[in-house]
Fold each of these.
Amino acid sequence: MILWKHRLRAGGMRLRAAPLGAALMAACLLMPARAQLPTLGDPSDMAVSAERKLGERVARELYRDPDYINDPVLDEYVLEIWTRLLAAARTRGELTSELDDRFAWQVLLGKDRVINAFAVPGGWMGLQLGLVNVTVTRDELAAVLAHELSHVTQRHISRLMTQQSRQAPMMLAAIILGALAAGKSPDAANAVIAGGQALAMQNQLNFSRDMEREADRVGYGVMTQAGFDAQGMVSMFEKLQQSARLNDNGSFPYLRTHPMNTERIAEAQSRQQLQARAPAAPAPDLVHSMMVGRSRVLSNPGMDGLRAYAAEADGPQAAASDRWRQVGILYAAALASTKLREPAAASRLVARLQAATAGDARASRTAKLLAAELALAAGDATRAAGMIDPADNHRPEVMLLSQARIQSGRAADAAPRLQTWVALHPRDAQAWQLLGAAYTAQGQTLRAIRAEAEVQVAHLDYQAAMDRFKAAQDVARKSGGGGDHIEASIIDTRARAVASLLREQALER
């Protein structure tokens, strides 16, 4: 799905009576020189920098959305797939060096249960957990992400907006001709206006359908180049088509923006059959099953839903399921029990999960992370910290260990690790937030305020960031820098940089 907004403002425009000849001449001048649609190879009229800025405006709203979720475990899993797809797109030449350098290439997760994913200008991606919930393999998730990635690499968003701007003269001409006809026949006027609008809309629909087909083709090549199984795209298409027939009650936005017709499914099947590989798709892996379980619990199922997930682990369906499905059920049940504030049940279930994942290093690591998370939620931060290797540099371990150390009164141990992390990942809002908490616990007010400002910078809210930087500058002036003159200097430098970004935002409006 391509997410884009375009408003045709007619406020303040008046249609006046005019001689027929003059009006027709105006209509002819407003009509495009050629009525045919541009081919998919035509360039966009929108500059890369303009597309990036437009994407940031949308991303700011996504960060503010209550459904936005920053979950290190799910983020890492999606990022692993995303990174492989980006590397494949570079290898294939789909991702140019200019787009690679100037676009964000970030995936933002939303905890909404709707089945949806969308591409945003500037390389931002939105992925609702509802879509993760219906996948069975990582290949299916990779198919969706590759499709959306291809919308951006082929610059479909900016080209669609260019196409819409080309339709504006056609629509305006129809309005003028309709106004002239109104004096003789109101019905004829309405017909002229509606006909012009319908033609423009149909042209745009045809263009966007071609884009969907191109995203299918390019996305297929990207996902297979990245090493994902081609069957993932076929099975995802078939799953969405079945949902379109049976279940589309408004909870499946992806179905309406990506119509799953038999032609697209047949093309995906043909590509898969032509690919030289083993005929059988690989079995679902344990980690993906666990991530689906986590996604389902975090996507707001409600109290009844949580109880159902918690009870499923002891039901007959779990006992009769394959190992990978049992692991997913146990993971969801343990996490749901924690949300229900039933630590004893959660502890019992996570022990079963760890036994079920023995022998699979990746799955065992994921189960261990959940065990530490449950211990932290139960208030045993010391035990949670002891479960995590302090030398492990993966983001979930860094975030969880830092959280446990801060809660157990060891903020001084958490700060250095977080400082190193944000130096390498300056746009990690959660890391800045934890660093701010660590500084606050140590009484380092100036540094804590600066960390709060950096959280807002990471979320592209430069006005809120400036407010915090100004507050930090006030603290520095009143306390003479609080003895931390280097930090005060850093704050001044960062404030100037963010002020420049804020001026650019003001100009965009």
Note: The beta strands are 68-69, 106-110, 117-120, 124-128.
Amino acid sequence: MFIQRHPLAILAFFIFIAFFLPLPFSPLFDLDEGAFSEATREMLVGKDYITTYLNGELRFDKPILIYWFQLMSVKLFGLNEFALRLPSALAGTFWAMSIYFFIQKTIDKPTAFFATLFMVASIQINMITKAAIADSLLNLFIVLSMFSIYYYHKEKKQKLLYWAFFFIALGTLTKGPVAIMIPVIVTLLFYSIRGDFLRWIKMVFNPIGILIFVLVAAPWYIAEYLAQGQAFIDGFFFQHNIGRFSSAMESHRGTLLYFIPVLIVGFMPFTYFAVKAIAGVKSYIKDDLKLYLFIWFAFVFVFFSFSGTKLPHYVIYGYTPLFILSALYLQKNVSKAWLIYPILILLTILLFLPDIATIFKESIRDELAQVLIENAYETFDIWYRLLIISVMLFLLFLLKFLQKTESIVMGMALAMIVSVNFIVIPTYGKLMQLPIKEAALLAKNKPYKNIIMYGISTPSFNVYYEGLVSKKRPINGDIVFTKTPKLKDFKNYKILYKKNGFTLIKLGDN
């Protein structure tokens, strides 16, 4: 009853504890958060608002929009984790609300509530909506464009199509051609199945829509080409877009089955409903909305399964339709055990994470990873384990004493949000990223000039150091930030800082 009366208030609570409250709790994570944040810092310092740089070198990985939003946030709140992550949290909030209002209008309010809750509380969304990267913003624009197109399909109002072109343009300014590809291909498949290909042609080549797209998206691309010429074409389009599909960049490769385990874990704690939704595909063909949503999910899943470069967040572009389809199965013969046990298994793995890592330590070639595992017990301490056990006991309480599926699902959402945001991520951040932050702040406050980063790539160091670093062979007298296993490359040095495999040293006579 309370859910029916106050759905937005409940969702606002979950969004606050999932997206906003944890923003400053962990240092920036490398490589992605560090790279985006450092590029924003260099934009702030260099006042070049067209071209992005990373450690003084051209960065063509992503278009400009997320950097502009992060820059505005930093100017308002300072150079810190909260400010750098805030645009993603805001984008995640609008993304969640767009799901709610779309489903409230097309299906009903309870389905809208739980589809939105699935989005807010799932593991992968919890991660990207707090990360200082482009993906939360991109997903917002993909979702808004796809919803606008569906509204246009049903209501035949031209302004809805124009809004779709507008959101596609903003997505193109956020991450490039993927924001065009998903709406175009999904709608092509949908209209072709419905035998309305000519209408699709008319929709895609709408002259006013194309004009809106060009007016919004083109100016930055033109300005960047005028500033950087062929280097922009080669770096952005060929390397970071076509190259990502045709080959594995930066060793991010995987088999055709790569996204199956990603989906199973990334959709938790609601994987049970996702499996039900995917298995029910035969029933979708007669329903426009369900068919549209399933094609959207299936295309993203299949396309990126064939991509040469595979990263876990790629499949998230197809999560929104799956959240909606999954919410439809909330009342259909739900097994409490199937809901709770998978999360208990995941939490059990997290409880014994240092022990599991120690078992596999000898088979890991990365020397830094070996050092981190050796230090993990100190960080993943008794308090970490007690907190995980407390969440597990809470889930067992849900299993034993609650009967309504809706109440259990809300309890699962709370358990997952608390586990991810207030236990696991802060603990991992303390182990992996806090030493980088502390070393950078030490170098900044001394101050040490002309830092050399040797044998390691952690752009978050630049953010906290608030300066560029050199990447060259160090010589006598240099201040060097490196990983502990690399110390064997030097004979004489003074340790200025050392923790969890990260070291700041001053070289002496060789």
Note: The mean pLDDT is 91.
Amino acid sequence: MTGKVVEVKDQMLSIMDTTLRDGEQTSGVSFTDMEKLSVARILLEDVKVDRIEIASARVSDGEFLAAKRVMEWAREKAYLPRIEVLGFVDGKISLDWINSVGGKVLNLLCKGSYKHVTQQLRKTPEQHIDDIKKSVAYAEELGIRVNVYLEDWSNGMRNSKDYVHFMISELQKLNIDRIMLPDTLGILDPDETYEFCREMIETYPEAKFDFHAHNDYDLAIANVFHAIKAGIRCVHTTVNGLGERAGNAPLSSVIATVKDHLAMQTRVNETMLNKISKLVESFSGIRIPTNKPLIGEFVFTQCSGIHADGDSKNNLYFNDLLPERFGRTRVYALGKTSGKANIKNNLEELGIELDPASLKLVTDRIIELGDHKETVTIEDLPYIVADVLNYEDQAPAIRLVNYSLSHAMGLRPSATVSFMVKDKKYEANASGDGQYDAFMNAVQSVYEELGKPFPKLLDYSVTIPPGGKTDALVETVILWKLGREFKTRGLDSDQTAAAIKATMRMLNMIEK
């Protein structure tokens, strides 16, 4: 790496999040107008990013409706200067679109490489600048502020630097607020990122630059890190790293990296990162990998018994990424690598105390289950303890007697359910949006009648083995919340039956 590293400690970094624009370019992702509004609200008010990009002009009627709904909300909150829309060098078309939805900031997509301007637009650099001037002049008439994306800037810096410098020199003569430097195809490495960004900052000290990374080589975070070290003071992110192809720099990873490794300040509320990640996961349908840094299900889970033992003695296996910073909690997993410390931590959370000999027996059984690839959760522990220590087997407090589910074309699915609560039988019927929803509505109606607490269903996932056999067993895992979050599982060749088994296990857990 060439050049002197800029001291960044205690400086402020701005975040522009483009989940609702570039993130929506993830294959298969499309947000509704209400989903866009919900994400925009949480990003600005709870997560507290500085700016958001919410749409591309001219895309669709749905995009128009969504942008208009977000702008109407933003106008009431005085957030319009912080909400941006991507537009194109197309005369008045994009600007009229943005103006009609109530937008006040245009991110104008210009060409950042000679190859793009001559081969895609089939224009000379001078012609391209003339077209940009017309767009900027019209934006001024409408009272719309302009930022500029130099699309394919990274290739421009590699192969046509003279063109890049020509563009920026000309853009600085116009009424443009920010110049955004995208690694459009995700080609840069950290050294190149540093050198190119440093060249921009040293050559144009009066310009305000953003850096926009893509993750094609899994280098987005590293490139953001080096762009900041080079002097960039605004970077673009997406929630969960959504975006074109391999995605963009994940918001959560950027925030943790700049705080812990660069000692920089942002306005982002770390404790809300998990909330926005789960919301976007739900709306996008793109599952967060379980090992995704900071937001994955298992990233604050210690599996090794040695780690649990060290944590109990003086947090020996903690680092600066404490789960509480991000609205999470630490978990000690159960499996074949579990030691007594892991299992003891989980038993204590359930209020179960065992003598050393009993604890060893339970530990041995969990290791045995792990060797056979059995999944063991904290909710399984009471059953394992009872089995290993030969406690008297008790009949379940809640027992399903029978149920009937119906689903006919043109009619709402319905369910009739009969189950025992201790020694008393209850029956109920209900309809729902699906067979399982109807079953849940019937059970919940009984619980409301009894005045019993009923958990909130947070997540529902089904695992179907590969191979295409219709009679294969499927596993349904349901995440519940009643005081704390917990999971139950059901296994059956029928998906709904598997979910019902998971639900009955949940009912027995909360009864006990």
Note: Confidence is low (pLDDT under 50) at residues 1-5, 304-314.
Amino acid sequence: MSAQSSCSNGSSCSSCEHQKDSAECQLKATLSQIKHKIVVMSGKGGVGKSTVAVNLALALALEGKSVGLLDVDIHGPSIPKMLQLEGVTLYTSNGQLLPASLGALKVMSIGFMLQSADHAVIWRGPMKIGVIKQFLTEVCWGALDYLIIDSPPGTGDEPLSVCQLIPDAAGAIIVTTPQAVSEADVSKSVNFCQQLNFKILGLVENMSGFICPKCGELTEIFSSGAGASLSGKYNLPLLGKIPIDPVVCRGGDDGEPFIHHYANSASAKAFASVIQPILALDQA
């Protein structure tokens, strides 16, 4: 897929205007078939945002919902690895790109289009924005209950593009870790959403304590409280606190999401509380 191009002289023309109108209509048509669009974001990298996105999508699929998972992390796509979908070949139908599938879950990522997993994508903003728009308009998502969008860390081109392209989104889930340094960075995501009038569904505190694999005891290994502090400061619901669990780390590396393969783990049970308000969206 390539980003949309503009006139060589930078000015508008009737052909460009027609293409723009057509693309806007196609975007609206695609989004109209998706009931709830949810963006998973964080102002800080390394908080386990993609882990939350993957397991949220799978948890909803396990509840019998039709779900799509869109990875808009152009420079560091990790969804194919986390779902054991590396090397998947994508096909087209009626001029649209068919997403990869994992059971009933539909998945799209720039990672499917790279020559190799270590291939670097060296693009400026307009290219990234164009591809994200194409992921929303030229991918055959079909009718979905939920589209979960995994955004890269920060408040740059990718999350901004998603929020502007999907004005009727259900909202954002913002991921933090317990430390104070994470709280400061994640606050930027909260302010980002507020400035865009983009609804925030709630916060998830990931890596919230360590579960001993032998005795099951929870030990606080980081400073704690960022999730609760952010929740109180911005009057946002804290959807859940996901502990560090060896099965989560192993599952991410092996492509076995913990909510599915380790349903009895402490992390999977903690994650159950996260999906309840999300499921409630489909009942409203």
Note: Confidence is low (pLDDT under 50) at residues 2-12.
